Structures are given as C-alpha cells and as structure tokens.
Predict the structure.
Amino acid sequence: ELKVEQNPLFLSMQEGKNYTIYCNYSTTSDRLYWYRQDPGKSLESLFVLLSNGAVKQEGRLMASLDTKARLSTLHITAAVHDLSATYFCAVGWNNDMRFGAGTRLTVKP
Amino acid sequence: KAGVTQTPRYLIKTRGQQVTLSCSPISGHRSVSWYQQTPGQGLQFLFEYFSETQRNKGNFPGRFSGRQFSNSRSEMNVSTLELGDSALYLCASSSSTPNYGYTFGSGTRLTVV
C-alpha cells in the first residue's frame, strides 16, 4: 500500500521568509501533484510533476521531484499572507492518486 | 470551459438514510474519481471510474458505491448512513491520461445527524 508523508504538518512563517515542505512516498511513481486548499473550499491544482528532476515554478512557489529518492519538495520564497492555506501533495497510483496529510501554512506579518 | 460540477453543495441526512451525490466532469474528461475528506482522516480515495467501468476502489465498506454513465457523469451512493459519514465529498476529473492532472469540483458537504 502506498504511503505518502508530508512534513511539517503545521507551518507558521513570517512574511518575507523562505521555507520548504517535504513529501515522501513509499512506492515508485513518476507522477506527483501539488494542490492548495483554502478553508471551506475545494482543491486547486498547483503543479503536476511527471519525471525525475522535474522542476516547476509559479510565482513564489517552486516544486521539484526526485523519483529515485521518492521525494518532492514545495519551496516557498519570500512568503506573503496570501499564501496562507493548506498544501497537499498527491502521488500518482493505479490511474489515480493518494494524498499526504497536508501542510497547514500560516503566514504572519 | 465549464469546470467539474458537483450537486448538491450541502446535504443534511439522518442516520440510516441513503444519499446520492452527483458529479459532472469537464467536457471530454472520461475519468472521475471520488474522495472523502474529514478532519481526522484527511483525503481518502473512494473509487475511480473510466468509461463506465470502476477501475479502482479504496478501503471503504460496501455501503459506498458508485457508477458512471455514458456521458461520463458519475454518481456515488451511500446507504445506511452513519454519523461518521459526515464529510466533504470531492470528485475530480481527468482526461484519459492523467498527465495533465486532475480538476476538482467544489464538493458536497454531507452532514449526518
């Protein structure tokens, strides 16, 4: 059974600081997804990573994938309050995906 | 283009009743997946349908079932509702190859009283 572990589960950041969220998974997969969820809302797709070494960036967020280490990272640069949300990684598995527990990010002024 | 549409948005049901939730995927998307989200268990996979066939099923009791129609719309049914079934139910659609990712609907918030 595929296991997906995210850490940290809770992250309180100051505006302007950098931080990284980690996503480890237990079984070989070449598909890794990152989603954002605001309170009471659905999931918004951020990144789709499909190969070893893939790196994608959008604004202050950058995601990378190392399939050999079974590790993906979501790096936050110069955090702003608007980035406060819960971030989920999900690993492609059997035509579908399995989610990590999520990282609740709070950015404080 | 239209997104993934889930109906209804909110439901309140009594223990023992049954409920049917609907999901209309993005036009052209043939895969529909269902997830249950609760504060305690997080996002858990229920099942996935492609071209009217269930390809994958998660570890949920048989009270949870689903189906997909020829137009790719999907329904999930929960019979004999329990208090623990209270959750946000999300569906996601994707094209035949999931390399473009999955698009989620707004979800159905089910409360069992």
The first strand of chain A starts at residue 4 and ends at 7. Chain A has a mean pLDDT of 94.
